[in-house]
Amino acid sequence: MEKKVILVVDDEEHILDLLEYNLQKENYAVLRAGDGEQGLKLLREEQVDLVLLDWMLPGIDGMEVLRQIRREKRFLHLPVIMLTARGEEIDKVLGLELGADDYISKPFGVRELLARVKAHLRRSAWERPQAQEEAGDAKNILRLGELVVDYGARELWVRGKKVPLSRKEFELLYLLASHRNQVFGREQLLDLIWGYEYMGETRTVDVHIRNLRRKIEEEPEQPIYIQTVRGVGYKLV
After folding, report:
1. Longest distance between any two alpha carbons in the chain, whole Å
2. Do 113 and 28 meet the contact criterion of CB atoms below 8 Å apart?
3. Which pLDDT tens digit goes with each residue over 77-91?
4. Which of 8, 15, 48, 85 is the most exposed place for a label (fewest CB within 10 A)?
5. Distance CA 200, CA 177 (A)
């Protein structure tokens, strides 16, 4: 079995050493980059399965690296986990809005980081063949009012226009759309979509729901499709 390749982009040598050592112990291949330019170069030259990306980098910062990754269609569904020492909630929200799949605050626990890496890789490996098998299958095209959710093509159409979604936004929307009127708790969504046990990061779910509302609702502040069930979670009606 081929090793999964993890690209680690961080300007702190000891962090690179720590991550490389522990990832290799788990039988991952590791590519190292000390700045954003080098990280993007490696990403475009090598086959990469997941990126661990630091926020604070010399030259172009992690947010700009993330923007450039998500601009390229071939990397649209590449799992990207942000590493940040910045504790403010707005910073984490911004990363998620730009297309990060997850974030881990420094200092981080190695076991937690490895669990999240494994979870994102597991979901990514499952999705690729699943999408190929189901491409073109009309049963996997959901029509909800002015929305068309095409699982096989991984596409969303809103009022006749194609709307780009990040990988996690699409997964979240498809889950809700294929279980209409079913209420999902935040912790449940976190586990189903992000694939790791609840670790208190339900803000991740809220940010992705807000992003989806901006893209599918005519009035995001008064949503028609994705409804909040107070004290519980969300449902799509």
Report:
1. 52
2. no
3. 789 999 987 665 656
4. 85
5. 25
